[in-house]
UniProtKB/TrEMBL annotation:
Subcellular location(s) per record: Membrane
Species per Swiss-Prot/TrEMBL record: Stutzerimonas kirkiae
InterPro entries, alphabetized: MB_O-acyltransferase (IPR051085), MBOAT_fam (IPR004299)
Keyword terms, alphabetized: Membrane, Transmembrane, Transmembrane helix
GO molecular function, one term: acyltransferase activity
Membrane protein topology class: Multi-pass membrane protein
Protein known as: MBOAT family protein
Length: 510
C-alpha cells in the first residue's frame, strides 16, 4: 500500500480514538497516541518497528541513568549515539549505492537522528525525570516517524510540557486537516505525474532509445521537481497531522527554488535536517576549530567555519547516499560554499563593486548554475546508477532535436528549422498517459504549471500562515475556513484519491 494511503486511512482512526480518550481520560490521551503510533509503525513496517522499539528502550535507560560527572556522561552519550546510529550505518553499509533505499527500514533515516537528539539534549534537562509516556510519544509519533520532519527532543518536550492535555483548537484542527489534504494532493497531482513520465523516459533510454533534447530536458528538470514535490508533500502531511494533535512540527521547505544563492537554497531545503546538522554538528565543531593557531581573528574564525562546514557536509553525504559518489558530491558542495565565502574577501569579486549589467549577468548565471547543480544532485540521489553524461552524449551524438507537438507546426516558419521537429513532445514513448484518460501532451503542460508553481506561487507554509511571507516577493494569499473552502477541500481530496495510480511515492523507501 502506498505510504500516503496508509496515512489517509490511519490519520482519521487515530484522531477519533484520541478525541474519545481525551474526553474520557484527558491524562491518557498522550499514551493513546504513543500506543496507536507504535501500532501504526508495526503495521507499516514491522522490521522498522522492532528496530525503533529496541533503540528506544535502550536509550531511555541510558537517559534515566545519565551520570552528572562529565567523563562518565560523555561515555554514556557516546553509547547512546552508537545505539541510535548503528542500524542506519549497518543498513547503508550492507546496501551500497544501488540498493540502499530497498534495504532501509521505513523511516530509519529520520528516527535515528531524532533518537540522537534525545541523547544529546538529555544532559540539559538538569536531572529532570523524563516519563516513559513522553519518550514513547516522541519516538513513535506516527505523523513524522516515517518521513520527517525531524524534531529535536528538547523542542518536543517543551511542547508536551506546555500542553499536557493536548488541547486542540478548532483553528488548529482546520489548519491541520487542510494542510494534510493539500500535501496529499501535491503528492498525487504534482509529484506523481512528473515521476511517472520521467521514469518512462529513463526506461526507454535504458532500452537503447535516444531521447530528444525536449525529453532530456523533461527528465532533468522533471526529476528535480518530482523530488521536491513528493518530499515537501509528505512534510506538509506530517505538519498537518501534527497540528490536528496540537503538535507543531518544524517547517521543512520554504520555496527553495526561489533562492538566489547556494547558501539561501540550503537554508530553504530540508530545513529540519539542516537545523539538526547546524545545532548538533556545526556549532560544536566550530567552537573547537575556531581555536586554531592562526593569529588573525578573522582568518582564524574563517578557518574554523570552513572546517565545521566540511564536517557537516561529510555527514550530509553519508546520511543521504553511501559510497564515494555521495560523499564526493556533498564535499563538492562544501568546497563551492567555501570558495564563495573566500571570494567575498577579494575586492575584485565583491559584486557591490561591479557595474549594474555585470551584476545582473552574474545573478542570472549564478541562478542557472545553482539549478544545474540541484538537478544533478537530485538525479544522483534518486538514481545513483544513472550515467547522466553517457545519456546526454548519446542523444547529442545521434542528432537529438527539440521535438514539439504537431499542433505547433503552424508556427514552424517563424522558428529556426535546424534541430527542430514536430513529432510530438515524447516521440520516444508509445504513449505518455501519465494519468489514465488524460492526453499525452498534458505532460508538457503539467511540467510548465509545476515550474510556475515553484517560482511564482506561495508555498503551502505561506498559504496557511505558518511562515512569514512579507518579504517573499509572491502574492500574499491565505487559505480561509468556511463552507466554500470546505467544498473545495473535499473536491481536492476526491481528485487526489481518484487520480492516483497507487504507486509508492515515498522518496526514502523507493
Amino acid at each position: 500500500m502506498p505510504l500516503f494511503y496508509f496515512y489517509l486511512l490511519s490519520f482519521p482512526l487515530i484522531w477519533l480514538g484520541f478525541r474519545f480518550v481525551r474526553g474520557a481520560a484527558p491524562g491518557q490521551a498522550r499514551l493513546w497516541l504513543a500506543v496507536a503510533s507504535m501500532l501504526f509503525l508495526a503495521l507499516a513496517d514491522f522490521r522498522s518497528f522492532c528496530i525503533l522499539l529496541a533503540v528506544t528502550g535502550l536509550n531511555y535507560q541510558i537517559i534515566r541513568r545519565m551520570p552528572r560527572s562529565a567523563g562518565p556522561a560523555l561515555a554514556m552519550r557516546a553509547l547512546g549515539l552508537g545505539i541510535s546510529l548503528l542500524p542506519l550505518v549497518y543498513c547503508k553499509w550492507q546496501a551500497g549505492d544501488e540498493g540502499v533505499f530497498a534495504l532501509l527500514p521505513l523511516g530509519l533515516a529520520f528516527y535515528a537522528l531524532q533518537q540522537c537528539t534525545a541523547i544529546l539534549d538529555a544532559p540539559a534537562m538538569e536531572g529532570r525525570a523524563i516519563s516513559l509516556k513522553d519518550y514513547l510519544f516522541f519516538s513513535f509519533f506516527f505523523a513524522s516517524v516515517m518521513a520527517g520532519p525531524i524534531i529535536c527532543f528538547r523542542d518536543m518536550q517543551a511542547q508536551l510540557d506546555a500542553n499536557p492535555a493536548h488541547a486542540v483548537s478548532r483553528e488548529g484542527l482546520n489548519q491541520g486537516v487542510s494542510l494534510f489534504v493539500f500535501g496529499l494532493a501535491k503528492a498525487v497531482l504534482l509529484a506523481e505525474p512528473l515521476g511517472v513520465t520521467s521514469d518512462q523516459l529513463l526506461l526507454a533510454a535504458e532500452q537503447g532509445v535516444s531521447l530528444t533534447l525536449t525529453e532530456l530536458g523533461y527528465v532533468l528538470w522533471g526529476k528535480v521537481l518530482w523530488f521536491y514535490f513528493v518530499f515537501s508533500a509528505y512534510s506538509d502531511m506530517a505538519i498537518g497531522m501534527g497540528l490536528a494533535f496540537a503538535i507543531r512540527l518544524p517547517i521543512n521547505f520554504n520555496s527553495p527554488f526561489k533562492a538566489t544563492s547556494a547558501v539561501d537554497y540550503i537554508a530553504r531545503w530540508h530545513m529540519s535536517f539542516m537545523a539538526f546538522a547546524r545545532h548538533y554538528i556545526f556549532t560544536p565543531a566550530f567552537r573547537v576549530l575556531r581555536n586554531n593557531p592562526l593569529r588573525d581573528t578573522h582568518w582564524r574564525y574563517l578557518l574554523g567555519w570552513a572546517g565545521a562546514l566540511f564536517l557537516v557536509y561529510l555527514f550530509v553525504g553519508l546520511w543521504h547516499v553511501t559510497g564515494p559518489q555521495g560523499v564526493a558530491l556533498s564535499l563538492g558542495v562544501a568546497c563551492l560554499l567555501v570558495l564563495i565565502e573566500l571570494g567575498k574577501q577579494v575586492p575584485l569579486f565583491r559584486q557591490g563593486n561591479w557595474p549594474l549589467p555585470l551584476r545582473m549577468l552574474a545573478a542570472v548565471t549564478g541562478r542557472l548554475l545553482l539549478l544545474a547543480i540541484i538537478g544533478y544532485c537530485a538525479l544522483a540521489f534518486t538514481h545513483p546508477s544513472l550515467d547522466l553524461r553517457q545519456l546526454v552524449m548519446r542523444s547529442v551524438a545521434e542528432g537529438a532535436t527539440f521535438s514539439l507537438s504537431p499542433r505547433l507546426e503552424v508556427f514552424g516558419r517563424f522558428l529556426p528549422s535546424d534541430g527542430l521537429s514536430f513529432s510530438g513532445f515524447f516521440p520516444s514513448l508509445s504513449t505518455a498517459l501519465i494519468i489514465p484518460g488524460w492526453p499525452p501532451g498534458f505532460s508538457a503542460l503539467h511540467i510548465l504549471v509545476c515550474t510556475a508553481a515553484v517560482f511564482l506561487m506561495p508555498n503551502t507554509m505561506q498559504l496557511f500562515g505558518l511562515i512569514d511571507d512579507a518579504a517573499s516577493g509572491v502574492p500574499r494569499c491565505r487559505w480561509r475556513y468556511g463552507p466554500a473552502y470546505a467544498i473545495a477541500l473535499g473536491g481536492l481530496l476526491f481528485l487526489a484519491v481518484s487520480l492516483s495510480s497507487s504507486g509508492d511515492l515515498y522518496v526514502y523507501n523507493r
